[in-house]
Design goal:
Helices cover about 50% and strands about 10% of the residues. By secondary structure, it is an alpha/beta fold. About 40% of the residues are buried. Bound molecules: 5-phosphoarabinonic acid. 5-phosphoarabinonic acid binds next to loops.
Length: about 450
Amino acid sequence: MEKIQVINNGVLGSINQAAIDALTAEGQAGLSKLINGNGAGNDFLGWVKLPEETDAALLDDINATAAQLRDNCEVVVAIGIGGSYLGAKAVIEALSNSFAAYAPSNTPKVLFAGQNIGEDYLAELSDFLKGKKFGIIVISKSGTTTEPAIAFRLLKDQLVAELGREEANKRIVAITDAKRGALRTLADTEGYKTYVIADNVGGRFSVLTPVGLLPIAVAGFDIHALVKGAREMMTATLDGSDKSAMTYALTRNALYRDGKKIEILVKYNPKLHFVGEWWKQLYGESEGKDGKGIFPAAVDNTTDLHSMGQWIQEGERTIFETVLSVANPDRELRIPTDEANLDGLNYIAGKRVDEVNKMAELGTRIAHMDGGVPNIRVVIPSISAYYLGQLIYFFEVACGISGYILDVNPFNQPGVEAYKKNMFALLEKPGYEDATAAIKARL
Ligand code: PA5
């Protein structure tokens, strides 16, 4: 089996190997906290062994539900935000044809809602769904998050208006807590098909639960292969035979301690854009607390070399890069020869487009190292469900180890509540009367 590789020699002009090795004991302690469940946030470690605990029967059941939605819908809207959105979006975008949205297909289109409070977005989505056979997967672990609740209320009303309550309820699947939350109550009352998000799996670690798996299966991708990739990475990481997650965690923390406060995830394959968004949430929510944490940013090159490239090359030297590199594209396309050669491109005629992309990647890495931007490389053999499964688990476990090296609880997100409290106060939510008075006095 080919595996993800982590290559960290691109940091050695900035820090030395001894600085990385010095963190080994802390990294090992972090990994054993994850395995033994004796670190901060240990009630949220359900994801650690999830890939081996996910049995084929659950995956088959998810595939059966997906098949039902696929048979009955032209469009399926996955409603959720944060961890209840980004994992599915990342995997679907990575595996989809880049122009699938514009091409006719027998597979239902998977669209997303509840990841914003955009009035135009929701109104345009509602217009788009008019007259189409659509279904809804509503995902909220807490079952109380405002953004998906608004989207669900709107789209559920539309579905009920079109089909009547009984038929509409057959096209709705809810993924939520086993017992708690408004969505659980509603799902039980209406008799929706449901899946449970385990108490001990936090939102941003939930892509390999039904939260991610059902939308991914509806989009037509192989969830057995996804989980298999994660399972093999899990086994090799937890038994110590694969050190890639450890190397990544140690290296980024050594850089952080050396003053590199910002990590930029760099991709050269545009299909990985949302892997970057998922990764930002995973690391940002896990590490950004107690006045600490690497700020996670992401760019898509070479596109962003023409926008952010200047800053990265010559701006403040507080950054490092993690380059997510894909060894082999799926398709082969060569640059044609042109007799007139007015564009001067004949020197690369006959080369694969990917070879040019790879030279851009290598040239940029060298330029950035010369410019004081160390880089770590994470190489995946190709973009497939299996390797994305490996990559997801790799980033999750490295995040847990990293958070423990940083000495934070990687599994809570207390800071997310601050905006909600103010928003509820401003909206005069019952129960927030004092907060409403206090915030209005500040305006
Ligand atoms: O990682 C997290 O816990 C959060 O980002 C949540 O995923 C996000 O806030 C959505 O929460 P919920 O699934 O409860 O609606």
